[in-house]
Amino acid sequence: MSGAAAPATMRVALPCTGLGRQRRGFEAFTRELHAVLRDAPGLALSVYGGGGDVRTGEHAVWNTPRDSSAARTLAALSGRGPYFVEQATFFAGFLPHLLVTRPHLVYFADLNLGNALWHWRRVTGQRFGLLFYNGGATTRPYTRCDWVQQLTPAHFDEAVGRGEARDRMVVLPHGITLPASLASRDPARVAATRRAVGASDGVPLLLSVGMLDRTIKRMDALVDAVAALGEGRPHLVMLGQETSETAVLRTQARAKLGERVWIGTWPAERMADAYEAADAFALFSLREGFGLAYVEALGAGLPCVAHDTPGTRHLFGEHAFLGDTQSPAVAVAELQRALAQPATGAQRTARHAWVRAQFGWDALAPRYAEMLRAFAAGHRPAWGDA
Predict the structure, then answer these.
(1) What are the residue boundaries of the structural domains of the chain, listed by start?
(2) DSSP letters spanning 80-104
């Protein structure tokens, strides 16, 4: 669109294949972005989800959900995974919307959906920009999009180092919703949450949030580190979406921690209670696309333990306990430091203030609006990777 004057209002489509059914960060992000930019001047955002929990203002798109038996059958027949089947069928259901609404920009995170949209545009000549939200920190070449949003400076620098063109990318972090001030912990609510997860009186509660697996989130390493703390160990609560590794993780956790562990999946609207009841937070991932759970925990005022990377240093600043969590001794030491941290009001307030200033929507919404308007018009926003 760079050869013609940009229209007064840019139409931006936000397709998210798992919206309404999955609980990844991008589903929550899509809804929050739509809410904060719904009335932004010069933008008309349309959200497209995969069904299930469809909310006002969202469009349900026909597809075969990844968790369905039909998706598993089609995946087996095609040699692809169920998630690929979901994206491919979603693309077919999305086409009528694409043809009728004719967006200026499609803002996507599902890689195979973006690939299909790129081929559709190539074959048909329909004109729209493709902006890829790199929430998974993929290292694949960015050949099926026009623009890329990196969530941290580290991912931007890594991509440039691999040969990606810096003028096709921007750095803009994931936004989150936070109150203007951090409320005091409600004793009754905290007690109810602790009872729900089986935490005994007087025992600290250590929270971890992420996929319940051993390969990516390394929940097994966290179990080992907590077990090494001995009789004075905290009650470990691990919340997230189940995976094929969850059953083995449960067995390991029960064997090593006995009754001082609780593993399960909670709806998004209940997660605030978990953060409020926790005394500390830990997640030992070696790599994150962004690290939403880290930011949510820090925004709740919790002392946090994480693997030391350029990404976690960017997210936490000086407000976390970072170390080489691949070393059992280091992992145990950092947990001890976090659990010994007094939960004073000043410290909680400082953590919350850091997150709100860096990642709150009040700070980020204007930049998101500018980014979408610019890419819809066919050019990079003025602030670029600043």
Answers:
(1) 10-177+361-376, 187-359
(2) S-HHHHHHHHHHHHHHHHHHHH--S
Instruction: Please state, in angstroms and rounded to a whole number, the distance separating the CA atoms of residues 250 and 269.
Output: 24
Write out pLDDT tens, residues 14-27: 999 999 888 777 88
User: Residue 131: which region, alpha, beta or left (left: phi > 0; alpha: psi -120 to 50)?
Assistant: beta
pLDDT at 5: 62
Which amino acid, residue 331?
Answer: A
- The burial class, CB within 10 Å (0-12 / 13-18 / 19+), for 123 is exposed
Taking 80 as the threshold, does the pLDDT of residue 385 lie above it?
no
Tell me the three state secondary structure of residue 108.
strand
Look at residues 84, 120, 78 and name the one whose alpha carbon lies nearest to residue 102.
120
* CATH topology (fold) of 10-177+361-376: Rossmann fold (3.40.50)
For the segment 214-254, what is each residue's pLDDT rounded down to a tens digit? 999 999 999 999 999 999 999 999 999 899 999 999 999 99
Domains 10-177+361-376 and 187-359 are alike in CATH topology: yes
Chain centroid offset of residue 209 CA: 11
Q: Does domain 187-359 have CATH number 3.40.50.2000?
A: yes
Distance CA 160, CA 169 (A): 9
Tell me which residue of 216, 12, 37 sits closest to 129, measured CA to CA.
Answer: 12
118, 130 Cβ separation under 8 angstroms: yes
SS3 call for 220 = helix
Q: Using one digit for the tens of pLDDT, what is the confidence trace for 350-378?
A: 999 999 999 999 999 999 999 999 999 99
CA 245 to chain centre: 20
Q: Is the pTM above the cut of 0.70?
A: yes
